[in-house]
Design brief:
The protein is mainly α. Helix content is about 65%, strand content about 5%. The strands form 2 sheets. It has a 5-stranded mixed β-sheet, with helices on both faces. Helix 3 crosses helix 7.
Length: about 900
């Protein structure tokens, strides 16, 4: 079969078609609107294969002759199209013979002689001149022979490269055929896996039905019908079936079950054999290493390059000797170049040609000939490999088709098996169906109550709305009658009132039997339904009601016993305004009816669950991997739990430490606030005190011991002034005490504020001024007030002395009188600067009001700090609760969940 590279067809895009049998390539002009059948007809004239024997494959898809090239996104340079011979795919087809390749022969010219090509110098008397034409003829012969060898080897090397391209085409064709078979095999393998899953689940279910038929019948016999449903022929659930016929059905199902299992076992062995054959084909390696052949051709290319270099050297030597001969003939030889010198120079060149160039050309020719034979042998070996591989692929494709047909037959057989076991399944499903009916009765009764309750709520709401509207209209008419005549208002229709809203519901579901939710377990026990399949635990959890806030709906079942109901909206109850509840329609009764309906719906749904649809929940081959993954995730979750527990404990400790520090600071702030309040009361109490006398001669130590107590932190706690009446001595003592306290407080102010700033620094939202002289404005005695107080006390003392009959004035100590006189003289001197003291008094009052305001701000901030501490305590309690809950979770419960998964 020859290879045709270019054909003049309909103009369009180029499309390459590769022959898988021999690796030849045909180039066709095509377009997307061309049909595949027309391409087959064109290939018939090129390849010699009839259209019926041609099989075109592109990628992993077989081209259908009835479709267009555009349907396969052709022509496309990225997709190769391979042509397979159907006749060669038969198992009895002999392997193809080695392809015969014609190569050009090496045409070597005859040996030169003077008779065939005479020259004028042949008759020269000088032997040197006579030898020059002979050298020219020999050099021409060497060049012609070398050139002929080079041309033949060049053609042979090009053919080797052509064989390499055909090897690559055959390799891609073989890969395309395997990919096509792999595509078909994957489809049938998926179908087989699905069938085996369904078959194994059906076998387990049927085996369970056969083994537990006696238990199922006993359950049905033990479950008695409701008294309202019993008759003479039907007293229990077993009476719904013919008990005498169950034994025959059981025997027939047992025989059919065993036969079908044996047939599937044989089919499984056949499929496994086919699977092993396909895997062996995919594992088989190509006998020809195309990369090695390519390397060999690349290495032998140097021989062709060497021959080209030798041929070029021979051509230069021929030109040299021809020039010498021409010069001799034209007597153009110079005196320095004589014929003997020319002959002596051509002699070594001749020996190089004869002993080096020509033997090397022949050696390179032999090496290239061996390369061609090697490539030709590898090409034939690849052809045999493609032939045998395609026969195997064809055989396996036939086996895959048989498996597909058998799978269809076995699927029909599975349906037939289900029909045979239908009566046994009926026995298994009678109990759940009966419980579903009972649950449906309970649900409908609850629904009727819910329906009536909601209707009552609507009627109550409408009555409330009507009453509100009537009151509003009456009030409006009272205002309008004063201005508009009544007949005008009547003509406008403003005296009409809304009509009464009457909600009337025709009774329904009156034939329901009298049962409630609590009667379900008594009339149909849980053992009658049987355990739920493992794959339905989540489904059961999803349908269980958790609170009365979720909307009610009936879950549709497969048997159609529970239809989708309307949603219950609890917010309808809360929309109306507050009023007296109507009997039978209260919120509690309506919500209770809804809960009963939802519970009955969930029970009915659980009873209608069919375990047949969960056959493919978990693949048996992946159970081990799932268990390992679950174990790893469980260990990781436990590790995260421990880390989170440690984090909570550390957070708890830090919160406790922080709370303790906050409590200490709060206590300190309370003490300082108490001291500040005492000082403030003292400053306010001085304005309302009586006359105060000053005794300068009193000792400071005595005053300290009586009225001031030094605390541990350097502050002074001052006892309040005694409210008892004082004589002159007590006034002087009090005056001295006040002066002493003023001096002590003046010295301790900085320490007090320093302590406040230090302890309040960590509280958020609290800022204190840098300098807050609380004591300077509050503790400094106002001189004008002291003066007025002393004058009042002296007048009182004189009046009391004159009214008293006893000589009390004579008993007054001399030093006290002296002190009073000194004090009066000092006050008299101060009267001269009354205006200055008045200004100071105003400044002190302003400072006092400012400090009072700042104190109020501090109290507000302190209250905010106390609120923050309370919130921190609440967060601490929440963290403790979370920690306790996290420690309650046991690893056994987690492992139990993993076991269920």
């Amino acid at each position: 079969m020859s290879s045709i590279d270019f054909q003049e067809l309909v103009p369009g895009r180029k499309m390459f078609v590769h022959v898988a049998e021999n690796g030849h390539t045909f180039e066709l002009d095509s377009e997307a609107g061309m049909s595949v059948e027309s391409v087959l007809c064109r290939l018939e004239s090129l390849s010699g294969l009839a259209p019926d024997d041609q099989l075109l494959i592109c990628g992993a898809v077989r081209l259908d002759p009835r479709r267009l090239l555009g349907d396969y996104k052709l022509p496309d340079d990225a997709n190769d199209i391979f042509l397979f011979n159907r006749a060669r795919l038969a198992g009895d087809c002999p392997p193809p013979e080695m392809e015969q390749i014609e190569l050009p022969e090496v045409v070597v010219p005859p040996s030169p002689s003077p008779s065939h090509n005479p020259h004028p110098l042949d008759d020269a008397l000088d032997p040197a001149l006579k030898a020059l034409p002979s050298y020219e003829r020999q050099f021409k012969y060497h060049f012609q022979k070398g050139h002929a060898i080079y041309i033949a080897n060049q053609a042979r090397f090009e053919r080797c490269k052509r064989l390499l391209q055909e090897l690559k085409v055959q390799e891609r064709a073989l890969e395309t055929a395997r990919r096509n078979m792999d595509h078909t095999y994957r489809m049938i393998d998926q179908n087989y896996v699905d069938f085996m899953k369904r078959f194994s689940w059906q076998q387990k279910q049927h085996q369970d039905l056969l083994a537990n038929l006696g238990r199922d019948t006993e359950r049905l016999r033990a479950c008695k019908l409701h008294p309202a449903l019993r008759t003479e022929s039907r007293k229990c659930l077993l009476d719904f079936t013919r008990e005498d016929n169950l034994r025959k059905v059981h025997e027939a199902c047992t025989i059919s079950h065993g036969q079908f299992q044996e047939k599937v076992s044989q089919f499984k062995g056949m499929y496994m054999k086919l699977k092993h054959s396909i895997e062996d084909l995919f594992r088989a390696q190509s006998p020809v290493n195309v990369r090695h052949v390519e390397d060999m051709i690349r290495q032998h290319e140097r021989y062709l390059e060497e021959q080209a270099s030798i041929t070029q050297s021979l051509s230069k030597d021929v030109n040299t000797v021809r020039k010498l001969v021409d010069d001799c003939v034209g007597s153009q030889l110079s005196a320095s170049l004589r014929p003997h010198d020319a002959v002596s120079a051509l002699g070594p060149m001749y020996h190089v040609h004869d002993r080096n160039h020509l033997p090397r050309m022949e050696a390179c020719s032999r090496a290239l000939a061996k390369l061609f034979e090697f490539c030709q042998a590898k090409k034939h070996e690849m052809t045999i490999c493609v032939h045998t591989s395609m026969q195997k692929v064809s055989s396996l494709q036939s086996g895959i088709r048989d498996i597909r047909f058998q799978l269809s037959a076995f699927n029909e057989a599975m349906i037939h098996q289900d029909e045979i076991f239908a009566e046994l399944k009926l026995v298994r499903r009678i109990g759940p169906a009966y419980k579903t009916c009972l649950a449906e009765v309970v649900r409908r009764k609850a629904l009727m109550k819910l329906y009536m309750g909601q209707a009552g709520q609507v009627a109550e709401k409408m009555a409330r709305m009507r009453e509100t509207e009537v009151i509003r209209r009456e009030q409006l008419l009272k205002q309008l009658v004063a201005y508009i005549p009544r007949d005008i208002l009547a003509a406008m229709g403003l005296f009409d009132n809304p009509s009464q809203c009457i909600v009337n519901i025709v009774p329904f579901d009156t034939n329901l039997i009298d049962i409630d939710v609590c009667d379900l377990e008594r009339l149909a026990q849980e053992a009658l339904v049987g355990p739920l399949p493992k794959g339905d635990h989540n489904l059961q959890g999803k349908n269980s009601f958790s609170s009365s806030k979720s909307s009610y709906h009936s879950v549709p079942s497969e048997e159609g016993s529970i239809k989708a109901g309307k949603e219950y909206e609890p917010q309808m109850i809360d929309e109306g305004c507050d009023s007296d509840e109507i009997i039978g329609t209260s919120k509690m009764e309506v919500e209770n009816a809804w809960l009963k309906a939802e519970l009955a719906s969930a029970v009915a749904h659980i009873c209608t669950l069919d375990p047949e649809f969960v056959y493919d929940s978990v693949d048996e081959s992946s159970v081990e991997g799932l268990l390992q993954i679950s174990a790893q995730k469980t260990a990781e979750a436990l590790r995260f739990k421990d880390e989170y527990a440690k984090h909570l404990q550390n957070s708890l400790k830090s919160k406790q430490v922080q709370c303790l520090s906050y409590e200490k600071r709060i206590q300190e702030l309370e003490q300082r606030l108490d001291q500040y309040m005492r000082l403030r009361k003292m400053s306010d109490g001085r304005d309302s005190q009586g006359a105060i006398s000053s005794v300068p001669d009193l000792k400071v130590d005595d005053c300290k011991s009586e009225d001031s107590v030094a605390t541990g932190d350097g502050t002074v706690q001052i006892s309040p002034l005694s409210p008892e009446p004082m004589d002159e001595g007590s006034c002087a003592s009090a005056l001295c005490t006040v002066s002493l306290k003023t001096e002590h407080l003046t010295g301790q102010t900085g320490k007090f504020l320093e302590g406040v700033d230090e302890n309040m620094a960590d509280f958020p939202g609290i800022t204190l001024p840098d300098a807050m002289p609380l004591d300077t404005s509050m503790m400094e005695l106002r001189r004008e007030e002291v003066k007025v107080s002393v004058e009042a006390s002296s007048q009182n003392a004189k009046s009391s002395t004159q009214s008293d009959s006893t000589p009390a004035n004579n008993n007054v100590p001399h030093n006290l009188k002296h002190s009073l006189s000194d004090f009066d003289s000092r006050i008299g001197g101060e009267n001269n600067s009354a205006s200055d003291e008045k200004d100071d008094h105003l400044e002190l009052q302003n400072a006092l009001s400012e400090k009072t305001r700042q104190c109020a701000e501090i109290e507000t901030r302190l209250a905010a700090v106390l609120e923050d501490v309370a919130s921190l305590r609440r967060e601490l309690e929440v963290s403790l609760k979370l920690l306790d809950e996290s420690q309650i979770v046991e690893p056994q419960s987690i492992m139990h969940c993993v076991h269920q998964v």
